[in-house]
Specification:
heterodimer, A: 342 residues, mainly alpha, 16 helices, 0% strand, B: 419 residues, Cytochrome Bc1 Complex, Chain C, 2 domains, 4 strands, 2% strand, transmembrane (chain B), Cytochrome b (chain B)
């Protein structure tokens, strides 16, 4: 049939156009990255390796231009990438030495009190309130230190151990904080005994007090709301927004519609390793474990795309309606044209 | 005063006052369409269906939309998308219909080019069609601003800035269009006015003119055959229906179109429910932020080929700056297709495959426009197979202009001389 051939030609060119301006262009606009890895040690070392490769290529390209300024800055980038890799190597080697299976929750409770955690953090489920309210503490520290009641359930245990020892390295904020501009939370220097055992005990304690079931919204409250609004669900930054903006360098965006503006893949990769998707960002890697990350993204979907189920169901119904209409229209056309054509 | 008699029926009552029968015959029952057509002839009716969808869904959206820089984003993304019952449906339909309208306009236009339906008495149909394309572009652009997302804001910034290229009055013109030094609340409000008031009125008027201009030269057919519509019409009316080369608009032509429209709607609602990101760019779900330039700014897909021509010129020639040359080329591209009836120097009306030169020209033009669209979206600093995107864009742009102003006249002059 001649019309079918014409139709196929039309569809062919539309398909080329579509593939070109959608999937193909997107691979160029958003270059591929390794998928999110919840073994943060492996994730950080893999990113550091990727960055070395990238900066090496930049350096090679710079060499070809012969421009001294470009070569110089490319060299600095390359050296930074190499030293960053060394830092992460030795940091995670230290953390991997900690045997988290041997943590003792009872001892951990004691160490937790001795280490001074509750000088800033609340653990409301255990009857421990924070010394300051959210406003005052965000004005003091930049952001309000989180309540740790649920920390053992939502954060990865190795990440928690890493965070306790060196919060700047664990959250990948080395580009923002150093000795001159210290991060508000100091690393844990030990309570006198074997520091690795003590860290392991604290993690065990946090896990022992954590509830078994945590909702996506609760995860959002603990992990995101200290900086971000999600105003379509009436949650606003926990603390003084101006202090947060000053601390972060800019106002962290409202996340109500983030599920429509970023793909789920992007959100996973970004939350998993912020520096991979947005090098230099002030947002810390928060260390959510895989299950929690999935829950918090599902929560953001219920806020930003609340009609998804209705949309998919309704669209199917309307499509079925038009299939039926097309059958009748086709029959009618046949009837009319049987009189017109020989 | 007409001689009004006591009416025999309700239909007769109206007929005596409004000449309903005569009107119906002129508009439908005796408006002759060639029999020898394909589904490509249904694009006009599909476009009309899409325009009705745009109009009705637009009315629904206007009821809740707030044209205010502080409220616009939330009125769209919260009130309409989440609070109003089926508000998301109207918005998705509106967004998809806007985008798909351009797809169908392009198919409609390329059908016209392929069958060379733009000349020998059909010039006004063609010119009014291209005019519709241009006004629809303005309508789409002004509508894209209304959700006040990042792409709305930055596209408005880039496009209004283009008018700065106009000699002498450029800067003043930009300010006049924006209503402010930068894109801001007054810009949003005036584009709202354009989108929901002035441009729709103009569009409806030009659509009416487009139909009217079609009434006398009649629609072309698959073979470009010149049909005596009066003669064939009489044949039809005298009962030689199967012999006649024409069919009436109603029911013959519309019976076909209803079928095509129904099938098209299945595809349309698949896009509404499941594949809408091409028409509603994810970046626009981020609220407008004048302090944060998005990493990539690009127009909607249907503007990409013109956008690539705009940025295809990267070197200055004498006093002309690269951006000025781009702007001139861009403006030319916008109206270029409207010149086809005069750049085609032959009076042959026949499908492209009847003339090898024209046939090749047609497919090269189509492929060039598709490639321009694809490169229009790619980052300008990238490269494909080792060739810088900027150079590829330049070559494609020159090719487009060459095809229109050099190759088309050349091929058609050869055709005329060869006969």
């Amino acid at each position: 049939m001649k019309e079918l051939k014409t139709l196929l030609v039309v569809i062919f060119f539309i398909a080329i156009l579509y593939i070109g301006v959608e999937p193909f262009a997107h691979t160029k606009l958003h270059p591929h990255v390794e998928p999110a890895n919840y073994d943060f040690a492996a994730e950080d070392i893999s990113l550091a390796n990727t960055n070395i490769e990238k900066s090496q290529k930049t350096l090679e390209a710079a060499m070809k231009t012969g421009n001294e300024d470009i070569i110089k800055s490319a060299k600095i980038e390359f050296e930074t990438a190499k030293s960053s890799k060394e830092k992460f190597d030795s940091f995670w080697k230290d953390i991997n030495k900690i045997d988290l299976s041997k943590g003792d929750a009872t001892a951990g409770a004691e160490t937790f009190m001795m280490a001074g955690c509750i000088g800033c953090h609340a653990v409301k489920s255990q009857g421990m309130d924070a010394p300051m309210d959210a406003m005052a503490s965000s004005e003091t520290y930049g952001t309000n230190p989180p309540d740790l009641s649920r920390a053992g359930a939502i954060f990865d245990e190795k990440f928690l151990a890493a965070l306790i020892k060196d919060p700047v390295m664990a959250q990948k904020l080395g580009h923002k904080f150093d000795d001159e501009n210290p991060y508000p939370m100091p690393g844990f220097f030990g309570a006198g005994g074997d520091i690795d055992q003590e860290v392991s005990d604290i993690v065990a304690y946090l896990k022992s007090i954590a509830p078994k079931e945590v909702s996506g919204k609760e995860i959002f409250v603990d992990a995101c709301q200290r900086c971000h609004d999600i105003k379509y669900d009436n949650l606003y930054t926990d603390g003084n927004k101006i202090s947060v903006a000053e601390f972060m360098g800019s106002t962290p965006p409202d996340l109500s519609m983030i599920i429509r503006s970023k793909s789920k893949d992007y959100l996973h990769n970004f939350i998993n390793d912020t520096q991979k998707m947005l090098p230099g960002t002030a947002m810390p890697r928060v260390g959510l474990n895989k299950a929690s990350e999935e829950k918090v993204i599902a929560y953001m979907e219920t806020v930003g795309d609340s009609k998804k189920a209705e949309r998919e169901k309704t669209s199917i119904y309307i499509m079925i309606y038009f299939v039926i209409l097309a059958i009748f229209a086709g029959l009618w056309k046949k009837k009319i044209w049987s009189k017109l054509e020989e | 005063m007409a001689n009004i008699k006591k009416s025999t029926s309700l239909g007769d009552w109206f007929d005596q006052r409004l000449a309903v029968k005569k009107f119906w015959n002129v508009m439908a029952a005796e408006y002759w369409i060639p029999k020898n057509i394909s589904f490509l002839w249904a694009m006009g009716v599909i476009l009309l269906a899409l325009f009705v969808i745009l109009f009705v869904s637009g009315l629904m959206l206007v009821m809740y939309y707030k044209p205010d820089a502080k409220l616009a984003f939330d009125s769209v993304n919260y009130t309409i998308m989440q609070e109003v019952e089926y508000g998301w449906l109207w918005r998705h339909m509106h967004g998809i219909a806007a985008s798909i309208t351009f797809l169908i306009i392009y198919i409609h236009t390329f059908t016209g080019i392929y069958y060379r339906s733009y000349k020998n008495g059909r010039e006004m149909i063609w010119v009014s069609g291209i005019l519709l394309f241009i006004i629809f572009s303005a309508e789409a652009f002004s509508g894209y601003m209304l959700p006040w997302g990042q792409m709305s804001y930055w596209a408005a910034q880039v496009i209004t800035q283009l008018f700065g290229g106009v000699p002498i009055i450029g800067d003043a013109l930009v300010e006049w269009i924006r209503g402010d030094y930068a894109v801001s609340d007054p810009t949003l409000t005036r584009f709202y006015m354009l989108h929901v008031c002035l441009l729709p009125i103009v569009i409806i008027a030009v659509i009416a003119f487009h139909f009217y201009s079609l009434r006398f030269p009649h629609v072309n057919n698959l073979d470009g055959e010149e049909i005596d519509f009066d003669l064939e019409g009489e044949k039809y009316l005298s009962g030689k229906v199967k012999e006649s080369k024409v069919i009436p608009f109603w029911p013959g032509f519309l019976a076909k179109d209803f079928f095509y429209v129904s099938i098209f709607m299945i595809f349309f609602f698949y896009l509404v429910g499941f594949n809408y990101n091409f028409a509603m760019d994810p970046i626009n779900f981020e609220p407008a932020n004048s302090l944060k330039t998005p990493t990539h700014i690009y127009p909607e897909w249907y503007f990409l080929w013109q956008y690539e021509i705009l940025r295809g010129f990267f070197f200055d020639i004498g006093p002309l700056k690269a951006s000025d040359i781009g702007l001139i080329a861009f403006s030319f591209a916008g109206v270029s297709l409207g010149l086809l009836p005069w750049l085609d120097r032959s009076d042959v009306v026949a499908p492209a495959h009847k003339n090898r030169g024209f046939f090749i020209w047609f497919w090269v033009l189509l492929v060039d426009m598709i490639l321009l669209s694809i490169f229009g979206k790619l980052p300008a600093d990238g490269s494909i197979m080792g060739i810088n995107n900027t150079y590829i864009g330049f070559v494609l742009s020159i090719l487009y202009i060459g095809l229109i102003v050099v190759f088309l006249p050349l091929i058609t002059i050869l055709e005329r001389k060869g006969r």
